[in-house]
Amino acid sequence: MFETMRAAPGVGLAAPQIGMPLQLAVIEDRQEYIDKIPPEHSAARLRSAVSPHVIVNPRLTLETPTIEFFEGCLSLPGFTAIVPRALAVRVDCLNERAEPVTIRARGWYARILQHEIDHLHGTLYIDRMLTRSFMGRENFERYWKNVPADEFKRLLDE
After folding, report:
1. CA nearest 78: which of 133, 130, 135?
2. What is the pLDDT of residue 47?
3. Is the whole model's pTM more than 0.70, yes or no?
4. Is 116 a catalytic residue?
């Protein structure tokens, strides 16, 4: 699964995305991905590198108010939308050795965990997105990638 995720490239992959009916996901946010975006974007998203790891049978607890950012998915390549997600989460799960672990995450890591755990319950980001923000990735890259989500929403309402 890590190989498939990295080849995409992505920062997470849930077993159901590759046809495996398991409550299992792999996650890794590589520094090389973060280095490709402007520092102010990674700072706004509280994004930092996340070491590769496995979560099994996760239980998600949302801990703070939501924050909105554009999000995409390997299951729907070529699209993006604004998705509200909790800024911080707690995940109780098993690791790849079936040992119980608790993960406390903030920022982009919390978003990745929520996104992948959603997959384990049959939910995609398009089920949570702000529908008027849905667009092709090419359009996003050309016109909107440097516009904060709250500014984009304001422009939609004008």
Report:
1. 135
2. 96
3. yes
4. yes
